[in-house]
């Protein structure tokens, strides 16, 4: 056969079966080594459980302001990892070390002094602090309690290792208390920062709101259109204009009624065929124009809302004076052109001319008011583009108004939060279960971690050993090898006589299981002897009461 | 391989796997030596503990019982004699006494449970085994037995540490090498080949021992569901199955 032989699964299983004990030896040895390591470096673990609440967030209305400043990873980072990172931060560890005075222990000081001799620019105190921080960092852990909670509160187990139960408990308690205190301080500082931020923003948004409201008002006025003698055209003024038109109509009707009466009186005095002379000249035309202007101005003054003020009264006095002047002018013209008319008839003719002038001036006033009303109506039917612009300005004003309200609320909230933190009425991190004195020196998690690592390493070594024994085995393992080495044909292969003991000495045949047994027995003996020497404290009723306290 | 108090006659069965394989080896050996007329074979190995004595005894027993050949088994390993243990008999008188001229050939050669199998055991353990070997006497012995037996198997010392096997190889018709699977190092086998170079033309073949434990699975009879194994094991537990009505040197009752 040329080329490589095909993979024979039976042959592999056959070899594995023959090398089973050899394969087991590294695995069992590694596991025993892990156990020995656990026993030699026995450590007690004290654990406390804390509940971690959701971080205080700003009001929803402020999200547009602060949303960009938050990274997406921050919100998705698990709480436990955040707590663990916090526990292993240098500042936190320094605080723990200082509280417990770990940098001043004799062992750490001695080792730091030795190291300091070889390092320039680093003091013994700094090295001791670094060493103590390193030791504490390796001895505190944060892990989740149970499955991830759907609520905003997460339970986190904070555990600490120590060489003896009291040390472990002291470290765990110190870590938890420090975490709670630092968290309260941090929350208070955050609340203050939020308050300061809100106060700054309130000023800005008050100005923005004022500007946006002015912009909206100006736009409305510009869109509605023409202004009448500086009178803004709006719904209120439109209503006033309508009222002015109504009163003007009534006044005109009264004048018309009076005209008919005067005309009848004139027929009685001057006869049925009497004619009314034309009483116009430059003076009367000027006075009539003046009267028209005064009437229009009076209407505008009404729209300005100046009713009851001196402006209206003065306007009415001017109208009255103008009417008197106009009547006098008509009276003079009637005297000059009246011919045979009596004095009473002349007065009637002048009065009729005056009433006609007043009708014309009132009509002018009415037309102006109607024009104003029409302008308002046209403004109400303006283009969609203008409507969109108006809506945009309204939205902007409303948004600024909302933000201002939210900022004012946030400022109030931050003051409340700060007050809560000051009075310690509420924490984001609360101790649910304080640390108790551990009873056994074998923490479950450490046990699992070390043993699983040892088993993995053992399995890896086992594979290497088996492959090495198969690949680099120098002994004869096939007829072909024997034939090649002796350069003769093989006569045959004789199996072992089952009833007889296998070839070789007992140890040469059974070195692997014997080694396994020795390793297991030695490990068991060591564990038993050391276990009896270092028994953990037995919990008593007194201890339990003390721990609860 | 052997254990004190237990010999090859104990639980012997023609259905046993090792007997079947031995028969096959004898068949192969007979076919190879049919034309040359070889009758005297020396069984040796590279080092001790490779099962050459057991195989040598097995070849002799099976040749006598299964093939009906008139067979002689000589234990020529004066340093670590084993044949007498394997056959359940005393070592003396044997080859050492014959080489020393203390006993005659007829006295040294003793019968066994099998009528067609005779044995010359090692004899007394010599104080200096290296000096005990007499090449001329041994050559005369071989010359004598060649004409008297159908097959002669000589169990020699290992080749690498001792020189006698090479000297004996000069007088025998063929040399059979025994290696133990999973134990004998390949370089040691090559060394044996180098030592046997002067008698290389007499090397008729190699027998691999302990095949079921170390060779690939297809050398294991259990893979094929060997039919005689259960009966063989049961008989092995029950006791000897080769009997003789009379035994010249033993007090037990044997039946052939």
UniProtKB/TrEMBL annotation, chain B:
Region (Disordered): 234-256
InterPro entries assigned: Bact_polysacc_biosynth/exp (IPR050445), P-loop_NTPase (IPR027417), Wzc-like_C (IPR005702), YlxH/NBP35 (IPR033756)
Gene Ontology CC entries for this record: plasma membrane
A GO term, aspect molecular function: ATP binding
Keyword check for ATP-binding: yes
Regions crossing the membrane: none
Keyword set, alphabetical order: ATP-binding, Kinase, Nucleotide-binding, Transferase
Pfam families, sorted: ParA (PF10609)
Protein name per UniProt: CpsD/CapB family tyrosine-protein kinase
Organism from which the protein derives: Eiseniibacteriota bacterium
């Amino acid at each position: 056969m040329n080329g490589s032989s095909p993979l024979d699964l039976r042959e592999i299983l056959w070899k594995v079966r023959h090398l089973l004990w050899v394969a087991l030896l590294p695995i069992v040895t590694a596991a025993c080594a892990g156990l020995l390591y656990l026993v030699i470096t026995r450590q007690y673990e004290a654990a406390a459980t804390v509940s971690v609440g959701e971080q205080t967030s700003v009001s929803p209305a402020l999200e547009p302001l602060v949303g960009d400043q938050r990274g997406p990873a921050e919100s998705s980072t698990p709480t436990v990892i955040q707590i663990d990172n916090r526990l292993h931060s240098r500042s936190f560890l320094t605080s723990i070390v200082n509280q417990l005075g770990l940098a001043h222990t004799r062992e750490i000081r001695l080792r730091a002094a030795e190291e300091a001799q070889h390092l320039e620019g680093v003091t013994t105190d700094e090295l001791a602090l670094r060493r103590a921080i390193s030791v504490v960092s390796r001895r505190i852990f944060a892990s989740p309690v149970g499955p991830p909670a759907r609520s905003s509160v997460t339970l986190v187990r904070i555990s600490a290792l120590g060489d003896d139960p009291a040390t472990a408990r002291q470290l765990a308690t110190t870590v938890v208390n420090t975490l709670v205190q630092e968290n309260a301080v941090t929350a208070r500082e955050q609340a203050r920062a939020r308050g300061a931020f809100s106060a700054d923003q309130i000023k800005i948004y008050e100005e923005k709101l004022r500007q946006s409201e002015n912009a909206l008002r100006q736009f409305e006025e510009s869109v509605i259109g023409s202004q009448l003698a500086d009178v803004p055209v709006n719904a209120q003024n439109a209503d006033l204009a309508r009222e002015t038109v109504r009163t003007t109509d009534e006044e005109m009707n009264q004048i018309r009624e009076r005209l008919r009466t005067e005309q009848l009186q004139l027929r009685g005095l001057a006869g049925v065929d009497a004619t009314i002379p034309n009483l116009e000249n430059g003076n009367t035309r000027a006075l009539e124009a003046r009267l028209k202007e005064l009437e229009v101005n009076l209407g505008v003054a009404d729209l300005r809302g100046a009713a009851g003020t001196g402006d209206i009264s003065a306007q009415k006095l001017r109208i009255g004076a103008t009417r008197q002047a106009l009547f006098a002018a008509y009276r003079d013209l009637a005297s000059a052109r009246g011919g045979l008319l009596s004095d009473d008839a002349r007065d009637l003719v002048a009065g009729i001319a005056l009433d006609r002038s007043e009708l014309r001036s009132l009509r002018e006033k009415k037309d102006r008011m109607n024009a104003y009303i029409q302008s308002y109506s046209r403004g109400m039917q303006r283009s969609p583009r203008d409507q969109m612009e108006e809506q945009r300005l309204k939205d902007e004003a409303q948004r600024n108004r909302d933000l201002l309200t939210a900022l004012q609320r946030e400022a109030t909230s931050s003051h409340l939060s700060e007050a809560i933190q000051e009075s310690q009425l509420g924490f984001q991190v609360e101790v649910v279960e304080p640390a108790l004195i551990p009873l056994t020196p074998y923490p479950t998690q450490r046990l699992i971690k070390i043993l699983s690592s040892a088993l993995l390493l053992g399995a890896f070594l086992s594979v290497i050993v088996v492959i090495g024994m198969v690949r680099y085995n120098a002994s004869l393992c096939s007829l072909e090898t024997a034939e090649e080495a002796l350069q003769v044909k093989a006569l045959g292969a004789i199996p072992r006589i089952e009833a007889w003991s296998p070839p070789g000495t007992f140890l040469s045949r059974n070195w692997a299981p014997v080694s396994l047994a020795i390793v297991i027995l030695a490990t068991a003996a060591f564990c038993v002897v050391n276990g009896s020497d270092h028994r953990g404290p037995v919990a008593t009723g007194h201890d339990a009461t003390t721990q609860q306290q | 391989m052997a254990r004190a108090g237990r010999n090859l006659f104990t639980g012997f069965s023609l259905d046993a796997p090792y007997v079947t394989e031995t028969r096959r080896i004898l068949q192969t050996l007979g076919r190879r030596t049919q034309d040359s007329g070889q009758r005297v074979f020396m069984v040796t190995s590279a080092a001790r503990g490779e099962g050459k004595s057991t195989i040598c005894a097995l070849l002799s027993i099976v040749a006598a019982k299964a093939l009906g050949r008139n067979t002689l088994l000589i234990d020529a390993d004066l340093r670590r004699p084993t044949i007498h243990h394997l056959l359940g008999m005393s070592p003396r008188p044997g080859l050492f006494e014959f080489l020393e001229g203390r006993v005659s050939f007829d006295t040294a050669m003793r019968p066994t449970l099998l009528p067609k199998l005779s044995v010359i055991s090692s004899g007394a353990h010599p104080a200096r085994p290296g000096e005990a070997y007499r090449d001329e006497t041994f050559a005369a012995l071989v010359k004598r037995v060649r004409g008297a037996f159908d097959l002669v198997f000589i169990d020699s010392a290992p080749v690498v540490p001792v020189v006698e096997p090479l000297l004996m190889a000069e007088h025998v018709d063929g040399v059979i090498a025994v290696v133990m699977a999973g134990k004998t190092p390949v370089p040691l086998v090559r060394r044996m080949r180098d030592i046997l170079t002067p008698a290389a033309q007499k090397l008729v073949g190699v027998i691999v021992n302990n095949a079921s434990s170390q060779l690939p699975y297809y050398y294991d009879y259990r893979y094929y569901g060997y039919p005689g194994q259960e009966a063989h094991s049961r008989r092995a537990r029950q006791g000897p199955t080769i009997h003789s009505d009379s035994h010249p040197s033993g007090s037990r009752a044997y039946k052939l």
